[in-house]
């Protein structure tokens, strides 16, 4: 029994925190809906206001649910990436990508510390599939990328792909979240390469990104809840 578990009233405090978690999750969903609606409507100001609020709200929800510190850190580094990517210049893009990269390291470390409370190891077949997709994508997009971004984007893509594959250790929600994160960043890369884009490309980038972070969070929290003693 840990010191926290032995402290009188700690269970009640945890239950009160979880009650606050629902309103925070609702706020996250409302802000996400506003951001996506703003992107569809071409309301750039709405996106500038809503996007920096997303990850703090999701982080707050996760923390109130008793999330591991590495999950909280991953979401906060995602927030750093969100903020820097709002600036439309290469230095800010690289700093934002670096912040996301640190977040992926946090995710990978968390996945590596599963210690039996996740559903199981990530299948090697899935990893091979991700590797093939990554290689094909990089070969196709490489000639169209700006020369100074090719190496950073390749390194980041390797890290992101590893995270997406390893996310499966926390079950289907996290696995889908990892895949959507990869898709979201692939859409950003195709924009940088000036490939043809779907209508409202920023909408699709944010939709897949928001869903990715939310599903990763729910996957980890769900595994944690199932692992609690007595559940």
Brief sketch in words of this structure:
Helices cover 79% and strands 0% of the residues.
Description:
This protein has helices spanning 3-6, 10-41, 44-64, 69-85, 90-112, 124-141, 147-166, 172-192, 201-227. The chain has 231 residues and is an all-alpha fold. The model is unreliable at 1-9 (pLDDT under 50).
Q: Which value, in Å, is the CA radius of gyration?
A: 18 Å
Number of strands: 0
Instruction: Give the strand content.
Output: under 5%
**How is the quaternary structure best described?**
single chain
Instruction: Enumerate the spans where pLDDT stays under 50 for 5 or more consecutive residues.
Output: 1-9
> Mean pLDDT, as a whole number?
90
Helix percentage = over 70%
Cα distance spanning the termini? 16 Å
Structure keywords:
0% strand, 231 residues, mainly alpha, globular
Secondary-structure map:
Blueprint: H1 3-6, H2 10-41, H3 44-64, H4 69-85, H5 90-112, H6 124-141, H7 147-166, H8 172-192, H9 201-227
Helix pairs in contact: 2-3, 2-9, 3-4, 3-9, 4-5, 5-7, 6-7, 7-8, 8-9
């Amino acid at each position: 029994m840990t010191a926290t578990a032995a402290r009188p009233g700690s269970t009640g405090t945890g239950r009160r925190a979880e009650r606050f978690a629902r309103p925070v999750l609702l706020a996250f969903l409302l802000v996400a809906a506003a951001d996506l609606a703003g992107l569809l409507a071409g309301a750039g100001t709405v996106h500038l206001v809503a996007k920096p609020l997303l990850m703090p709200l999701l982080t707050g929800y996760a923390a109130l649910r008793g999330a591991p510190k590495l999950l909280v850190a991953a979401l906060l580094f995602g927030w750093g990436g969100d903020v820097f990517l709002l600036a439309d210049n290469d230095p800010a893009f690289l700093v934002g990508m670096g912040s996301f990269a640190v977040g992926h390291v946090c995710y990978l470390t968390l996945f590596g510390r599963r210690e039996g409370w996740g559903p199981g190891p990530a299948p090697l077949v899935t990893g091979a599939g991700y590797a093939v997709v990554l290689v094909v994508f990089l070969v196709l997009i490489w000639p169209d990328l700006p020369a100074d971004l090719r190496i950073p984007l390749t390194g980041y893509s390797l890290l992101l792909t590893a995270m997406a594959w390893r996310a499966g250790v926390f079950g289907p929600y996290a696995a889908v979240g990892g895949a959507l994160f990869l898709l979201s960043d692939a859409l950003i890369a195709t924009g940088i390469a000036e490939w043809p884009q779907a209508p409202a490309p920023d909408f699709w980038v944010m939709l897949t990104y928001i869903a990715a972070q939310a599903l990763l969070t729910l996957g980890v929290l769900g595994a944690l809840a199932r692992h609690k003693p007595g559940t």
